[in-house]
Design a protein that fits this description.
350 residues; six-stranded parallel β-sheet; 24% strand
Length: 350
């Protein structure tokens, strides 16, 4: 069993699992982090792994096929693993890693359902090892500022929170239908970040939820999923929240957060490619919004990984995303899925 405490000084030795859609983003953060040594990259497609490493300039990394994961877990020099594999694989990999003494950084959602996610945390607590569900929105400087100020009471009692989540997925992507077969529904895969964000702003979980989804793209219709959806939440404090989301947006990655109270409003606006404003006889214009989530949230991805490393090294006491919060986010998403399916308001008790 690896001794995580041995990482308290020097570098933390990691293995990264998967370089599909989200893996390359975490690989960028790993490459620029001064206290990380990446020893293994586990990926079924070797050419994809080789290219990913070349893109960030990382050398001396051993590429393993996913059938060779035992080598990672048996290696006593590995302090932790970063999981960027399909959600259906998370529980098995988390359990194996924890039993082998490795800390785990896992992409959201932690599991396909809240019960399984809770079981993962039980293993982490039994093994006394860090398990981070990567809710990266919390680590975004803009959103972190809003959360802190709202929780301190700057707006008085928060009455309403609104998030907009419009992704820039290519509707003509040839691999879209295959990709949809590897992920959870929009209620879990897409909504979960904003569900966690809203609950973190308010410091409470909703007591009732309604939701509606629309399927416009044929790939989503075939997968019984939705590419446009809305979730409405009500909280015990009386606060209301709306999460609006879309898989497709042709004008850039549209991500906004608005928090309103009688003391005013805090807004996290969109990021542009640059900050140049053009004014001439045709009018006033600004550059396009940033193109995708890896551009918009690059800093937050690095910050959440740094938080994980600091906990592994003992520089921070504990993972800031708790078991209760992580499992609650999945419960809320499950309730939204049920509300849409039954065209009803779903009640939640905590």
């Amino acid at each position: 069993m690896a001794n995580v405490n041995s990482a308290s000084s020097g570098k933390v030795t990691l293995a990264l699992f998967g370089v599909g859609r989200i893996g390359p983003i975490h690989l960028k953060s790993i490459a620029r982090h001064p206290r990380i040594r990446l020893k293994y990259l586990v990926e079924a497609v070797v050419d994809l792994a080789t290219k990913a490493l070349d893109d960030v300039g990382l050398e001396n990394v051993t590429i393993l096929h996913h059938t060779e994961v035992a080598k990672v877990f048996e290696d006593k020099s590995i302090h932790g693993v970063v999981l960027c594999t399909p959600t259906s694989t998370h529980q098995s990999l988390i359990t194996q890693a924890m039993r082998a003494g490795k800390a785990v950084f896992c992409e959201k959602p932690l599991a396909l359902d809240s019960k399984t996610a809770d079981e993962c945390y039980k293993v982490a607590e039994e093994c006394k090892l860090p398990l981070l569900c990567a809710f990266n929105r919390r680590f975004d400087p803009t959103y972190a500022n809003i959360i802190q100020r709202a929780r301190k009471g700057e707006l008085g009692q928060v009455r309403y929170v609104k998030t907009t989540l419009r992704d820039t997925m290519d509707p003509n992507w040839e691999g879209l239908e295959k990709y949809l077969g590897t992920i959870a529904s929009c209620w879990i895969d897409l909504a979960i970040h904003d569900v966690d964000l809203v609950c973190t702003v308010l410091g409470e979980f909703p007591t009732s939820i309604s939701a509606q989804g629309g399927a416009f793209h044929e790939a989503f219709k075939k997968n019984n999923d939705f590419d446009q959806a809305i979730i409405n939440l009500k909280f015990a404090s009386g606060a209301l929240a709306t999460i609006e989301m879309s898989r497709f947006c042709n004008y850039g990655y549209d991500q906004r957060l608005e928090v309103f109270g009688l003391g005013g409003m805090l807004e996290g606006a969109n990021f542009h490619d640059n900050h140049v404003v053009t004014a001439n006889s045709h009018g006033v214009s600004m550059p396009k919004y940033q193109a995708s989530f890896d551009d918009r949230y690059a800093e937050s991805y690095y910050n959440e990984l740094d938080h994980f490393i600091r906990v592994v090294q003992g520089k921070e006491e504990k993972i800031c995303v708790t078991r209760k919060e992580s499992v609650a986010a999945l419960r809320i998403c499950e309730a939204a899925e049920k509300a849409n399916a039954t065209d009803s308001i779903v009640k939640l008790e905590w």
